Amino acid sequence: MAIHMRRREFLVALGGVATCPSAARAQQPGKLRRVGVLMTFAADDPDGQADFAVLAQGLQEFGWTVGRNLRLDYRWGANDLERFRTYAAELIALSPDVVVATAGSVVTAFQQASRTVPIVFVTTIDPVGGGWVESLARPGGNATGFLSYEFSISAKWLEMLKDIAPDLKRVGVIRDASVPAGSGGFAAVQTAAASFNIELTPIGVHAADEIERGISRFAAGPNGGLIIVGPPSSLVIHRDLIITLAARNKLPAVYPNRLFSTHGGLMAYGADSLDQYHRAASYVDRILKGEKPADLPVQAPVKYQLVINVRTANAMGIVIPPTLLALADEVIE
Q: Are 182 and 130 in contact (CB under 8 A)?
């Protein structure tokens, strides 16, 4: 499968593959297996549509065809924790053979609804800290899946910030301290910052006014930049605000995944979510064929992508080094 295809091309190419719940009603002879999918995005979000389309295409490649031997039940959570809980309960009530969780908070919602239905998670960060698995090598329970990044990526983020802002001395770390991925992500940046001689300032994301106060206060000092860590589902809610404040205050920022840069963020480095969803289809397939999540190791990303928004850089008066531009998988101009 051509993972390098643009997201829009995936949607066009897949056409009618699992585009609406009613498609599964056209059942043909044979046993239907049931898969529930709870997406964190809103239903009209093109990134979420592309991720879901890749998952559906991956299942098709493994021989699972909607209406013949597969039913896909899915919901769009729109980054709302209450919806996650409601939709997770709805999907579990449909007695699925396996469910797909697209964020750590969705895993929690599914496990609150059932400790027996197999869960394949995608783009989560700290499943051990979150209590969803016993270890990465031996999950031990009803959940396994794919990490969105490893904490060691923090050094790379700091390195990239120094590349575009050589005088950088201070970094504000935007994170959700209430979840393990947020606190763990900040600790990882702390460890990496020592070798760069950089001072860190934590900035919370619980409310818009907290973010605005934190970034504005941090921006009052010189030679600053931003790193955003933690689960995208809790950060996407305030994505546009964070991007706007970073630009307004001329703060170079590195974001954890592509969708931030496509919305105006300066630079993003993280796992290719399309690749993650495609790989998740393989675990769904293996579970449908009898394997247990407890025995399937949690896997780290194998494909990262660097996205640079040159339009934002120009507006902020930042010159991106040619060496960094040459490394970019995508340049937004």
A: no
